[in-house]
Amino acid sequence: MSKVVDTDFPPQVRARLLGEIRSYLPAFLHRSASEQHDPAGDVRELLNLEAGDLQRVVAVHQSLDETVLAFGEALQQGLRQPIASSIRPPEVSQGVRGPVDWSATVSRRALEAGNPSLFVVRSAQRIFDTPENRALVWLLDRLQASTRVALREVSAEPSEPPESGNGSGWAAQIQRLSNQVYAARRVKWLQGIGPEMPTPATIKRLRASRSSFYARRVAPAVQAVVRLGNPSSDVLAEVLSRRYFEPAYTWLIFEVHVALSLARAFAKASGRPRKTRLLVGSREAYARYAYDDGSEVVLIYQEWPPGSGLSLRGETSKRHDLKLTKSRPDLFIVRSGPDPDAAILELKATYSPGYLGSGLSQLLGYLAERPGIWRRQPSGWLVAPASDAFADRLAGKGEPLWIVSAERVAEAAIERFVPAAAAGDEARAGLR
After folding, report:
1. Sign of CA dihedral 70, 76, 77, 78
2. b/e for 306-318, b at 16 or more Cβ within 10 A?
3. 4-33: buried (b, 16+ CB within 10 Å) or exposed (e) per residue?
């Protein structure tokens, strides 16, 4: 994976790539593509995220949600007028300190030998343990946890990128929300109430409340947090586009765009329905496509294919006690079956000839590192946005390297890796 890249894409190019990711990702993670749908797990596998990475991204997104921030701003004033129910428990007294329950008083005097000094009164008492307030406490608990996670995430970055125009606004906003939640948890009447995840009926009660704080601030914030508790593929696409891709990494936008474009193209040209999950639950492949001739095409992101042989680089480093991290190429397309084939793709989000040249050098190193898996040329594909930096020509016969634009790479992959019987005119037409 190449992180030192030219990330100076024009805003319209970034917007187009993000728009396509938002379009591709929900379909890529859609329930119909998996026997057991797990969009969060699929996203982690696709992006090679560590177990906590997506949780942190979701926490940042949740903490910066507009309805959540508005809830935080309204908290101090809203807690001064809480929703409460009234109860009137009976109280036996020799003095009248509230409304007298005369029927209960008569009954009680009869038990006390007609004592005329006894009264049963029922003074109103406010009870704050209501469904609305239990949902409020649940919301505060969730926001307390998410702001802690989010602050650890944003503190790792000194500021937002210039594109956002907000300086270090993320951290400041989340810290303010954290302070607001902390202050709310110290309010006395809230401390005796337990959290309860809001049901649809509770959310309906919140929205119908006569209190503008509960109806206009608590209810929308609760809905936003519930929505992110078990996010759908559409929600994850939104989260990733707004809080993961946008902040810093144009190279990541580009890599995921190419990876999803390839998956979309192979899905259209697939020879038969997939029998396994689109994402197979390991980092060895993020998508698989089976064909009637017995072949299978897999797409692999940031990992060497299984059975690719010993790494000459790794073996040499072991022999000389040289501590090296494992090489992680950007993307592989591998076909198994009667006509095995493999190509390695180095993705460069750049318009710079210098960066493209370094990409060619990386590809030559990868080809030499594991020479046993290459059966057809060109085996090393350098993929970059179309630009004046290079001429987008057909692959050279017998040449190990090829430069292909991101706009053409999916079509080229179908031409090479899909068996001829499966790649009919209709499938090809869908790629153009």
Report:
1. positive
2. eebeebebeeeee
3. ebbbebeeebbeebbebbbebbbbbbbeeb
Which tokens is 419 given? 């068996």
Global pTM value: 0.67
DSSP helix/strand/coil, 93: strand
Q: 332 - beta bridge partners?
A: 300, 344
Give 360-400 as a DSSP string.
Answer: HHHHHHHHHHSGGG--SS--EEEEE---TTS---PPPTT-S
HEC-encoded secondary structure of 272-324: CCCCCCCCCCECCECEEEECCCCCEEEEEECCCCCCCCCCHHHHHHHHCCCCC
Q: Are 39 and 232 in contact (CB under 8 A)?
A: yes
Closest CA relative to residue 269, chosen from 327, 223, 333, 221: 333
Check residue 408 and report its DSSP letter.
T
State the virtual CA torsion across 187, 191, 192, 193 in degrees, nearest 10. Answer: 90
Q: How far is CA 46 from the centre of its chain?
A: 11
Q: Tell me: the pLDDT tens digits for 311-321?
A: 899 999 999 99
- The interaxial angle of helices 169-185 and 66-78, nearest 10 deg, is 40
The secondary element (H helix, E strand) that includes residue 342 is strand 341-347
- pLDDT tens profile 51-86: 677 888 888 889 999 999 999 999 999 999 888 764
- Give the integer Cα–Cα distance in Å for 376 and 419: 15
Are 58 and 39 within 8 A, CB to CB? Answer: no
Of 251, 224, 225, 260, whose CA–CA distance to 43 is shortest?
Answer: 260
Q: How far separated are the first and last CA of the chain, in Å rounded? A: 28
